[in-house]
Design a protein that fits this description.
Elements (H helix, E strand, L loop, with lengths): L1 H23 L18 H23 L6 H11 L9 H6 L2 H30 L4 H16 L18
Helix pairs in contact: 3-5
């Protein structure tokens, strides 16, 4: 009688494990090799959220700096220069057709474009910074240090979700 009970218990454990494994299996891909709709990126919606987040950060920084009416023109020019650029994803099919040297050149071109945009933002920031009073410059320096300490990525001036300027 004992061996039968052991077999039944072992079968029950195996069945429970099989159900657990089945529950963790991801849903099958949609026809045509596309991932399920919930995993597809909606570029327009993501772009909209990025613009809204940028606007909130700029408003928070404007409050911190206490921009005067005389500084509104400089503020408008700077915030316009700081708007995040629309992201253009790699065309995977086109990238797959390239040779390795062509891919390297394409990546090099994208890097050069990003560097040029960063230089334009840096120049615009220097111009704007020159329009600030000494206390405003100090406040700006404190905010910029936090951003630069993180490399300007994910949570800095051009991305992320930490909302440091929303105080």
């Amino acid at each position: 009688m004992k061996p039968t009970f052991t077999r039944i218990a072992a079968a029950a454990v195996l069945a429970a494990c099989a159900l657990g494994a089945q529950a963790q299996t991801p849903p099958p891909a949609a026809p045509g090799g596309q991932p399920p709709a919930m995993h597809q990126h909606d570029g327009a919606r993501m772009q909209q959220r990025m613009q809204e987040r940028h606007a909130r950060r700029m408003e928070g920084l404007k409050r911190i700096l206490q921009i005067t009416p005389q500084q509104e023109g400089a503020w408008a020019a700077w915030t316009s220069a700081m708007k995040p650029a629309a992201r253009t994803p790699h065309n995977r099919e086109e990238f797959a057709r390239m040779t390795t040297p062509q891919r390297i050149d394409a990546l090099k071109q994208r890097r050069a474009e990003r560097n040029a945009a960063q230089d334009r933002r840096g120049d615009a920031t220097k111009t704007f910074y020159g329009q600030l009073s000494a206390p405003q410059q100090k406040a700006f320096d404190e905010v910029a240090l936090k951003v630069m300490a993180r490399g300007g990525k994910r949570g800095g001036m051009h991305g992320g979700h930490h909302g440091r300027w929303n105080s």
